[in-house]
Amino acid sequence: MPKKLSQAEMPAADHAFYGLVWAGTVMTEHVDRALVRAHDLPVSWFEVMLWLASSPEPVPASVLGNSTMLSRSQVSRVVDALQGRGLVDRTPSARDARSVEVSLTTEGRRVFEQADATRREALAPVFTDLLDERDIEALGTVWRKLKAQKDKLGQEPATRPARPRR
Fold first, then answer.
1. With 130 labelled, which of 52, 58, 73, 153 sits at a CA distance of 20 to 30 A?
2. H-helix or E-strand containing 92?
3. 60: exposed, middle or buried (C-beta count within 10 Å: 0-12, 13-18, 19+)?
4. In whole angstroms, how far apart are CA 61 and each of 25, 77, 89, 107, 109?
């Protein structure tokens, strides 16, 4: 029988990274199941709706691609699906004729509010009920640091690793 590694045998940085990945995966799957069951709304759709609900004005589609954890092509497919259900509108951008802006419809806001309540209810036993205010603030600090570094790296020119000569 293979030996199981204990937390003490794993370097702290590896354990922390694995913990973030594990927690994100478990919570996302938990929320996704709840949202699909209650609203036929995958978590990726909810994520786009969350960004739209947080904005007082229509959001350029490109901003959704940069803000969510979805690729631009995934955002486009999600917006297509949401529009097909009457939950979002696409309008030509007043600022840039080449782009479109996306906003929640009245029905989209209603569905989002219900889905957001479902998300919070699903997260409570596996997240918010387990953590105190300091834990949540610490996670917020970690997220902001990691996100700031990602944003900073995203602004730098991409470099390719040198290819080995044959």
1. 52
2. strand 88-92
3. middle
4. 26, 11, 11, 20, 18
Query: Distance between CA atoms of 161 and 154, rounded to whole angstroms?
Result: 16
The verdict on pTM exceeding 0.85 is: no
Q: How far apart are CA 56 and CA 150, in angstroms?
A: 25
- Do the Cβ atoms of 64 and 41 come closer than 8 Å? no
Cα gap 36→9, rounded to integer Å: 39
- Work out whether the CA dihedral 122, 126, 131, 136 comes out positive or negative: negative
Alpha helices, DSSP H only, in the chain?
Answer: 12-39, 43-53, 61-67, 72-84, 106-123, 133-155
- Positive or negative, the CA dihedral 51, 53, 56, 59 is positive
pLDDT tens track for 53-78? 999 999 988 888 888 888 888 999 99
pLDDT tens, position by position, 127-156: 999 999 999 999 999 988 988 887 677 654
